[in-house]
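Kindly review both lines to help learners:
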Amino acid sequence: MFLDADDEYIDGIFERMIELINKFQPDLIKFRYKKDDYEQYMYFEEDLTLIHKENFSTKVYPMFLDGFQLNAIWNICVKKEILQQIEFKEKNVKYGEDLMMNLEIFTKIKSALFINDIIINIIRILVVLLSQEIRVNG
């Protein structure tokens, strides 16, 4: 899971992720966020939507083209084995690095679970911290 230094998880997130992983066995879980009074739109009408690779072309890939739905990297939970396959190919990328990373992740996974749970509170601060490396912890 990814979390920006200035944001916070909702209580119970890890228990919820473990519950969903055990029940659905997805390679990736995509969840929603809240920022001040704004709650991110729902991905699908159903609270839980499991999509397998063979349906990505009709249900997932259009989200890359229709706006910012899959542009963020910080509101996913993805298998460690998938992250270990990801590399930053271009170290001088100034914009769209989350989108490029998401595209690479989605080409490697076999299933994605989209949930309408709000898992992250985004907190505004004036400092921006950027990193161009992935660290996968134990």
